């Protein structure tokens, strides 16, 4: 009943939306507006396209010196795709991204639902929630590096001395993984919460009035009114959080450096090790392109599944 009343409340605006769509189609199009985006196109060409072509050039050559190089074709791609260390890092990164999504998406939605909708408290809540997003990534890593230490860190000291749990993220792989995961949840859940909150604020009041008339519970209101209207926002949140978590580098590198062992050595850290530490430009170029391709494919799958499920 709640969902039916909500649909009836939303159906009143559909003819207006159709009329606006027809008016938009009748507006004259000015092709000269493309000149306004020309500086952006030129900037992207120099900051993205040219470096990408350079990486492609490196990926098919074995470079000894700036003037001494050998064309090797797809050999580096075969080598990287068969490397067990790269495969292990890929599974590790994929698992981390899955855990991030499973924690941050529901938690962000729950925070958004609990945030106030009116009054001065709205501004206070928005500022408090957005504070972690204002901190640079390397600073976040430094904060958690100190916070999780068992000797001087408030979090690590509390776990060891108050809870009586032997916690040491520098020696135990599980502790290191949990530390990096909690750090990412603390840093980026506010982004999901703000996106969800913006989606909740865009829901018209007649939807909630219909729920009150039907005496719907808070859970029924969330399930039949709020959650369906958040589908588009959550699609954006899932895509943003997946891409960012799958390419995470700074925070775990500052906290654990990829250790202990290879416990938190994600694809980005391994790529940095090959490109900067070993200075193998050919394998690093092939690795970069495969990394980029993986992100694009998985993001496309996510987007396709989420958009089709909402139809």
TrEMBL record:
The keyword Membrane applies. Residues 90-302 form the ABC transmembrane type-1 domain. The chain crosses the membrane at residues 33-56, 94-115, 122-147, 176-200, 286-306. GO terms for biological process: transmembrane transport. It is a multi-pass membrane protein. It is found in: Cell membrane; Membrane. Keywords: Membrane, Transmembrane, Transmembrane helix, Transport. Residues 1-24 are annotated as: Disordered. This is Glycerol transport system permease protein.
């Amino acid at each position: 009943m709640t969902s039916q009343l909500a649909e009836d409340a939303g159906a009143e605006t559909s003819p207006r939306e159709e009329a606006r769509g027809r008016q938009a189609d009748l507006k004259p199009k000015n092709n000269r507006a493309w000149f306004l985006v020309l500086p952006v196109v030129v900037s992207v060409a120099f900051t993205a396209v040219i470096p990408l072509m350079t990486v492609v050039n490196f990926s098919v050559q074995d470079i000894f010196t700036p003037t001494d190089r050998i064309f090797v074709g797809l050999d580096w791609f075969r080598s990287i795709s068969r490397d067990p260390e790269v495969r292990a890092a890929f599974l590790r990164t994929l698992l981390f991204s899955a855990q991030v999504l499973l924690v941050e998406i529901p938690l962000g939605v729950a925070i958004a639902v609990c945030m106030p909708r009116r009054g001065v408290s709205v501004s206070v809540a928005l500022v408090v929630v957005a504070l972690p997003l204002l901190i640079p990534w390397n600073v976040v890593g430094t904060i958690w590096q100190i916070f999780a230490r068992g000797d001087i860190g408030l979090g690590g000291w509390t776990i060891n001395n108050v809870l009586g749990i032997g916690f040491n993220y520098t020696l135990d792989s599980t502790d290191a993984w949990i530390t990096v995961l909690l750090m990412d949840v603390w840093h980026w859940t506010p982004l999901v919460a703000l996106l969800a909150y913006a989606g909740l604020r865009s829901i018209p009041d007649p939807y909630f009035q219909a729920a009150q008339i039907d005496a719907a519970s808070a859970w029924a209101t969330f399930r039949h009114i709020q959650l369906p209207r958040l589908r588009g926002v959550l699609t954006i949140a899932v895509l943003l959080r997946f891409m960012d978590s799958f390419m995470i580098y700074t925070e775990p590198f500052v906290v654990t450096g990829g250790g202990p062992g290879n416990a938190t050595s994600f694809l980005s850290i391994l790529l940095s090790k090959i490109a900067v530490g070993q200075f193998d430009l050919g394998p690093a170029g092939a690795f970069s392109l495969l990394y980029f391709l993986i992100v694009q494919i998985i993001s496309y799958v996510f987007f396709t599944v989420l958009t089709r499920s909402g139809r």
